[in-house]
Structures are given as structure tokens and as C-alpha cells.
Specification:
The complex is a heterodimer of chains A (181) and B (244).
Chain A (H helix, E strand, L loop, with lengths): L2 H9 L4 H24 L2 H18 L9 H23 L13 H6 L7 H11 L3 H11 L5 H8 L3 H21 L2
Helix pairs in contact in A: 1-2, 2-3, 2-4, 3-4, 4-8, 6-9, 7-9
Chain B lengths: L2 H13 L19 H22 L6 H24 L7 H17 L11 H71 L2 H11 L5 H9 L1 H8 L4 H11 L1
The chains are: A mainly alpha (181), B mainly alpha (244).
Amino acid sequence: MEDSIIIEKFSNEKTRDEAFNLLLKKYQQRIYWHVRRLVVDHDDADDLIQDIFVKVWKNLSNFRADAQLYTWLYRIATNECITFLNKKKQYQNISLDDDSASYLAETLTTSSYFNGNQAQLKLQQALLTLPEKQRLVFNMKYFDDLKYEEISDILGTSVGALKASYHLAVKKIEHFFNDHD
Amino acid sequence: MSTKDNRSNHNDDLKGIQGISINPMDTPFIVPENYFDFLPAKIQRRIKVIEDTTSSFTLPEGYFDSLSERIEAKIEESEFENAEEQNNDLAVDDYSFIKEISFISELKSKIPAAGFETPPSYFENLTKKIEESIKEQVSEESVVSIHLQKERKVKRLTWIGYAAAACIAFSIGAYAFFQLNSVNNFQKKLHNISENEIVSYLEYYTEPGDVTNNILETEFEGAVQTNKAKFSEEDIEAYLDYSI
């Protein structure tokens, strides 16, 4: 189903629920995995995904058709995740200046919903050492295959800066893998 | 070319410029004595120093071959750092790009997925779960909006109540003000009337047993007493005869 049709149906009160159901079916998994990779824990991701789509439902009527629907969804999801992670940092008395997500490493190893092999675990551990922005860019490029232009729309950052972030992330992951061989 | 010829050419050049003296000796600038005699030797010495200094330093073998490569690498590194900090655009050179691609493709072949799992049938129920969350949110919002409307009504009533109270207070205040004013006026007027006048008024216009009379009598007792001497006993009797 085309995004434009979903938006058109949503604007009509009679077909609003149907349109939202279509939107959920189309994007819920993609957004869930994006959120999950950022917050690591399933329960946190589950709470966030509901909050995100409630927000989407409330604001979809204000969505401007000149933007891509999925980049708009990613933007809402990313902002919610960043807000959540900052709150979590504050709750754990971690300085907001500490840009890495190393405080999530424990969640990764204790989570009952992580069934990755050693290599997957190592990649996730490497990702948690990265600054938040580099982790975001790497995740979207590596796992979601998004283009720099799309990531730029989502994060509101220039393509050049995104390339730099990705390049630095790759270098650091490479170093991590070399150091932990 | 001799020094004389040079001077002649120089003079020819200066001829064309208006206001400039043809004789170089007329310029306001001067040089130290014998300056031009020692200048060539001075220059020769400087050249020798430069030549000696250059030949005394040695370079690692193939230094200049790898210099440009090392500078480029340094620039690239600093560009990345700057772009990271300032969000500036940058270009990834081919070498880094190819290296990066090969590492990533190797990594992807080994690790295609993140390794996270969800509870069984999670996505089957997720749509329903989200729709229920939205319904809850909507019903909560409608309750909140009703509550807010009620609050607004209560607030409006309270506001009206305050306004009514203010009106009443104002009315009471105004009434009291005018009352006090009128009492003050009465007192002022009373103050202007002499005590004798009041007493004589009362003597003529009050009836025996009049409460007011008694009160006023008490009030103006002093005055009456002071005036008593002025009335003769005959007068009093005549008054009493007339009144009774």
C-alpha cells in the first residue's frame, strides 16, 4: 500500500482506523527493530514502540506530504529513543556528557531476548562503545540500508557529517574487533 | 653598462615624471656611508650561509616520495575530526572508501543481523496492543477534556461568585461611606450651631417626657447649667405655665 493512500485514508474520519492499521502493519516491525537496536532491552522497546505510534496517530494529520512517511516515522522514533536513553542515564547517575552507551552493555548480556552468537555479541558490544550519533548512523546504514540522504532527513544532519560519523564508527569497530580477537 | 650610463638612464626616466627632481642626490632618503660598497659582499655571505645550512641536513630515504601521501592522510584525519565536530561536509577518499567497504561487506557476511529476539507472536499482537493504547489514550483524553470543561465551569462560577462578592462589598462600602459622610455633615452642622441655640430650640419644641429631650438634656447638661443663671425664676415659671 502506497504511503500517500494511507495518508489520504487517514485524513478521512471514516477510514482513519483502517488507514492506521495499514500503517502499523507496514512499519511496525521496521520501527521496532530500529528502536530495539538503540535501547537494546525488549521491554523498553515495547513501551517505546507504543508511545511512538500513539504519537504518530496524534500527529499524522499534520504530516506534510513533501516528506517521506518512513523518514518521519524514523525521526519520531529516534527522538523518543534519545529522550528515553537520556532519562535512563540520569536515572543511573551517568553524566549526559558521557556519549557512549556502555551502560547498556549489561542489559545486552542479561537480556533473555538476545540470542546472538559470539560475533553478533561482539558487534553489539563494539557499537555500545560508540558515541550516540555514530551508533545511530551505523545502525541505520548497516542494518536498515538507509542512504545518507535519508539519514540526513531523519537526523537533520548534513550528509558530509554523516559520512564522517559512519567512517569513524567503522574505524572504531574495526579497532574493537582487532583488539578483541 | 657603466655607473654613469645607469645614472643617465635613471635621469631620463625621471624626466617624464612631473615634480620629481632629476638629480638623485636631491631625494630625501640617505643610506649609511659606503653602503653600496659593502652590499655585494653582504649578499654573497647570505647566499653562502643558505647553501651551507641546506647541505648539512639529511633526509630519510624516500622522504619526499611518501610526503604527499602522509600529508593527505593527515588532512583526511583532521577533516573527519572537524566534520564530526562542526558538521561540515567532507569527502572520503577512494582508498579509505574501498577499505571501509571491504571491512563492512566482510562484517555483513559474518554478522547479517543484530541477534536480538522478540517474545513469540510478538508482532502478531503488537498492532492490537498499539490500537488499544491509542483507544486508552483517546478515552483518557476525553475524560480529561470533560474534567477540564467542568473545571472551567467551576472556575467560571467561582469568577462570577467573586464578581458578585466584589459588587456587594462595593455597595456596602459605598453605603457606609455616604452614611459616614452624612453623619459627618450632621456633626459639622451641629458644630456650627451654638449650644444656646440648641437649648432654646429644645425648650420651645420638645414635649415633656420626650426621650430625646432627656438625652439632650443630659448631653447639654453643662450648657444648661451654665445658662441657668441667665433665666430668672419668673421666666422659668412662665415657661412652665406655658408648657403645661
